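Fill in residues.
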């Protein structure tokens, strides 16, 4: 909860606050070498894990972010040899690939035996072409991708619930941030906890999922 509050105070959106809380609470230890696929410029999860860009091989379509490799993602076969990396990130990007399963299989190929990947899968999410926006993934969809690619799920965490998803969808209207969005986001986290306690059989409707997967 502390990470959620801290990220909201930083002005982060609800999705990122919930995601970074899941990453922090998982206490996962990543070994080098590390690769981040579709990394962007300086994602907040590096800060949460105490990593710097110099620690990571980065791949991105946007040359202005100065990645280690500029890659357009129109196909997905990386030039790195098998078992090149101990750890990988596939965060907030699976929805842009035309063939997500081939991406997951490529992640498995470049991971060493026992290697770990951190992944996130938006579900309740606005149209976000980066440069494309093709898919959304349920829990069943995430489990299918992992099983078919040969990756074993170590942990799969829903991010938020119905209240958080509703708040996230109306977030563009919650301005100014600290007057409207901040208290609404904080309240939705509390309401989701209460709802989960009193209505445990209600089907989940999270913003998305955070997964820790392993190559075995």
């Amino acid at each position: 909860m502390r990470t959620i509050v801290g990220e909201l105070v930083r002005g982060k959106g609800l999705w990122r606050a919930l995601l970074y809380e899941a990453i922090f609470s998982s206490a996962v230890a990543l070994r080098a070498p590390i690769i981040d696929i579709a990394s962007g410029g300086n994602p907040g999860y590096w800060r949460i894990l105490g990593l710097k860009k110099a620690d990571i091989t980065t791949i991105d379509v946007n040359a202005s972010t100065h990645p280690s490799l500029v890659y357009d993602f129109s196909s997905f076969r990386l030039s790195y040899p098998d078992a090149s990396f101990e750890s990988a990130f596939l965060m907030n990007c699976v929805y842009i690939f035309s063939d997500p399963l081939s991406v997951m299989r490529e992640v498995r190929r470049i991971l060493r035996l026992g290697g770990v990947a951190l992944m996130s899968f938006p579900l309740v999410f606005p149209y976000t072409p980066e440069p494309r926006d093709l898919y959304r993934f349920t829990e069943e969809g995430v489990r299918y991708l992992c099983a078919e690619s040969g990756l074993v799920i170590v942990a799969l965490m829903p991010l938020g619930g119905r209240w958080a998803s509703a708040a996230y969808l109306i977030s563009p209207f919650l301005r100014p941030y600290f007057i409207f969005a901040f208290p609404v986001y904080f309240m939705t986290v509390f309401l989701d906890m209460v709802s989960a306690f009193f209505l445990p059989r209600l089907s989940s409707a999270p913003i998305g999922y955070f997964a820790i997967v392993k190559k075995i």
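The chain has a mean pLDDT of 95.
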